[in-house]
Every structure is written in structure tokens, then in C-alpha cells.
């Protein structure tokens, strides 16, 4: 059984036991979190929500809170001898899916 969930403005396909990296969630490391924005349940019997499946949820454990890879933003303006280099690291949360309930 798999589920398609929405968190942080993005959609993820998850199965029991899989790990995924999502936008930062306000939870402590080692705690359990419930994601109730389930868009679809798949497997033997497919259920599609409008927009969410009623009563469905995904329970996950917070593995770690961290930051993603560094992204470098380089801007250069022609004929001005001007340039700007900036970096960014997005805060992220790593989750391990425990169970999917319909």
C-alpha cells in the first residue's frame, strides 16, 4: 500500500518504512508526527480524495532536523563590473514512515 501526501506545498509518494526529506516541520527528533493531508491511497484498492481522503493519515517518525545542500546564486551585471555571490541552505526534516491508515 502506498499514499500520496502533501506537505510543505509539495507532493510525495510514500510507503511504509521509506525515508523522505521534506520542508522543515516543527517537531523534535525521535517524536512521532501525523500527516493528514492524504491526496490518494493506492495499492489493491485505490482511493482518490477531493482534495483529501477522509479519515486517512500517515504516521511518521522524525529521524533528524537538518539543512539541505548549499545552493550558490551568482549574479553578474554586464558592462558594470558588478557581481554578487550568495549562498542558501534550506532547512529540512527527515522522516521515516511508520504506518498508513485508511
Please characterize this protein's 3D structure.
With 102 residues, this protein is mostly beta strands. It is built from no helices and 10 strands. It has one domain. Strands 2-1-5-6 form a 4-stranded antiparallel β-sheet, with no helix packed on it. It is elongated, with a radius of gyration of 18 Å.
Write the layout of secondary structure elements.
Elements (H helix, E strand, L loop, with lengths): L1 E6 L2 E6 L3 E5 L8 E4 L2 E5 L4 E2 L8 E11 L3 E7 L4 E7 L2 E11 L1
Antiparallel strand pairs: 1-2, 1-5, 3-10, 4-7, 5-6, 7-10, 8-9
Number of helices: 0
The mean pLDDT is 95
Number of strands: 10
Strand order of the largest sheet: 2-1-5-6
Give the H and E element order.
EEEEEEEEEE
How many whole angstroms does the radius of gyration measure? 18 Å
Number of domains: 1
Residue fraction in strands? over 45%
Low-confidence stretches: none
From the structure above, extract its key features.
102 residues; mainly beta; 4-stranded antiparallel β-sheet; 63% strand; elongated
Summarize the structure.
By secondary structure, the chain is an all-beta fold.
